[in-house]
Design goal:
Length: 170
């Protein structure tokens, strides 16, 4: 018994425990990405005021500030619990949907919200998941054993996008 993701002739298959491990690993990678963003310096003048900036600079500052807020929330959860689970990640991610969309990580919410036999991932979910997988796969912390898994998942979700077909979860 396990979980199968299929779209046309592309498929991905793993055990239930393997699927939960993967989802947790991707959730960890996304938190690490946000943590890395939170370490960027803000462009504040010596008097503590942010002066006129371009739209791009304003967005950058907002991303850094919100990433710091997310990390505070996440650290509070980590301190309060001995064992983390998918619900813990969803609690934090669910409160910052717009932020995740803005930085290209909303796919983690789609991935975490479906467990073993929850039906399907829409084409829109596939786009979000591919964006998230692309960001995660470019991080220098990816363990070797997950690279092949990421590539297999990308094939399934890319097929969904290309053919405009759902990914069936069975």
């Amino acid at each position: 018994m396990g979980i199968d993701l299929t779209c046309g002739k592309e498929f991905f298959s793993t055990s239930y425990s393997g699927w939960n491990t993967l989802r947790m690993k991707f959730a960890e990678y996304c938190i690490k990405f946000i943590e890395d963003l939170s370490k960027n310096e803000l462009n504040i003048s010596p008097d503590g005021v942010i002066y006129a900036m371009s739209d791009k600079e304003i967005i950058r500052e907002r991303v850094i500030i919100e990433s710091r807020d997310i990390m505070k929330e996440w650290n509070n959860i980590v301190e309060a619990k001995k064992t983390l689970n998918i619900t813990d990640y969803l609690k934090v991610y669910g409160e910052h949907i717009d932020y995740l969309i803005n930085i290209g990580l909303y796919g983690i919410v789609s991935l975490l919200n479906k467990s073993d036999c929850d039906g399907l991932y829409s084409v829109g979910n596939s786009i979000d998941i591919i964006n998230m997988l692309n960001i995660v796969s470019n991080m220098n912390i990816i363990e070797e054993r997950y690279i092949e898994v990421i590539n297999k998942l990308k094939k399934v979700f890319q097929k969904s996008i290309n053919k405009k077909k759902v990914v069936v979860i069975a």
